[in-house]
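Researcher: Batch entry, complex prediction.
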Amino acid sequence: MSLLTEFKQIHLTKVEAEMRQFLRQQTTDETLLKSMLYSVDAGGKRLRPLLLLATMAGFNQKITLGAYQTAAALEMIHTYSLIHDDLPAMDNDELRRGIPTNHIKFGAGMATLAGDGLLTEAFHLLSRAELSTELRLLLLQNLAKASGTVGMVAGQAADVQGEGKLLSLEEMAFVHQRKTGALFTFALTAGGLLAEQEESVVDLLQTLAQHLGLAFQIRDDLLDVTATKDELGKNVGHDATLNKSTYPALLGVAKSSQLLAAELAATKDCLKTLQMTSLVKPELLMSLIEELTLEVQA
Amino acid sequence: MSLLTEFKQIHLTKVEAEMRQFLRQQTTDETLLKSMLYSVDAGGKRLRPLLLLATMAGFNQKITLGAYQTAAALEMIHTYSLIHDDLPAMDNDELRRGIPTNHIKFGAGMATLAGDGLLTEAFHLLSRAELSTELRLLLLQNLAKASGTVGMVAGQAADVQGEGKLLSLEEMAFVHQRKTGALFTFALTAGGLLAEQEESVVDLLQTLAQHLGLAFQIRDDLLDVTATKDELGKNVGHDATLNKSTYPALLGVAKSSQLLAAELAATKDCLKTLQMTSLVKPELLMSLIEELTLEVQA
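Model: Structure tokens for the complex:
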């Protein structure tokens, strides 16, 4: 078994358990709980919690309960954003991760509330995490900033307004740095903060995250063009239907692939620089980055 | 000028300034900012911030910047809940406070994001408030609990599922304790915590808030039946259209008014008990409670 596969098996189970346990404990309404757990349990790659935990492990730190709770809060934020993004009022997607989207299953009203619930309980969980009061507050501020109106919500807002418009490469990078990059940045920097790293190291993690986030988004755009519905677990060609600006639409598939390769190279450069600091075990992070590359080539 | 009117003029301006300033500072997307400020500026009675600040003042405490920020966060949570509650997927309301609802003005996608943004930035603002780290975290935990899936979101979920069903009086109280009562409870208890009151006093504030929340909801139901669209600034008779269980529908107008009077009496009893503790200036809270009664009689 690869190092990464083993890492996933050991640690993601605990992140998932934290999410489920907290939501069960904090939710009185059964349908609301079902609706939230439906999307939480729909799985996905858990890329953001993995990035957080792999970063922490890279600094040779034992992963604590507080880290699992931070990773769980992060994944709850990501999950809420998918539920709201899929709503008829937004992207109007009917399929995600191979199963019907939340609003198809529970109705748009309940799906809206499931998103609101996950968002609120993410901050609730983090505010109660097993961490020093200072670190809890710092992580809370960072998560709110990453997921809020200079971060993810701003990206979503630009995305909604960008439908039917042809964005420039810069405008598209702006959207993606917020829509995807912000939570990636939180994942990496939170991993550094949980490992008690100094500011210069956390700054390097942030730069790495920005390249990785962009790479991830180009990859996502490419898959929407090149993959099949079965491979992806969601409807493909959806971006084109919504007339969204994507990298393949703007640059073509070949140039987009080149840009992806360049961003991945920049990511790996950052990782090398970080190895000259206290990041003594970069293997997991490297495997995660490799996994991204492989998926697109396959 | 009455004591309450003067109090509103002095303090609500500061709460509103905190909301606007923080949102402007934390929002890059102009349309998103416009959409959030549209609902923030639509005003309303600011009952929750008023309750918080009047409680603090009742303990003869000077109102601090941290208190204004807490009150601002609370009003942002309330505002987000109204935007989402009005959405086509939820109550499908087109008019609130005399003007078109957020989604009528900005579209359902942007309105969903404006709600998500206000919700996230409320916790962001509170996480940065000028308060000790301990008090910030305690208030954050309380606000998340009050607005989350044992609180307001649970009430909304029960409300969505209750459409078309005739609820019992107990079931209706359950919904309202969450939908309205939870944020009222936060307002009163936060006022106590900001005034550094001991647990027994905060518990009394909680009991007062529960009676007041129920009174407020009965009043709201009554107004939907008895007031005109112009008086209310929103479409009336809407509950009946949605086939919602309301106090007038279940008990009739006369019995509902009696129940309202009973809850208000219980509220005043709590206030009297609190005057035997450190609540030395109950006048503002009393005026606020009186205002509620007057509006229904008018």
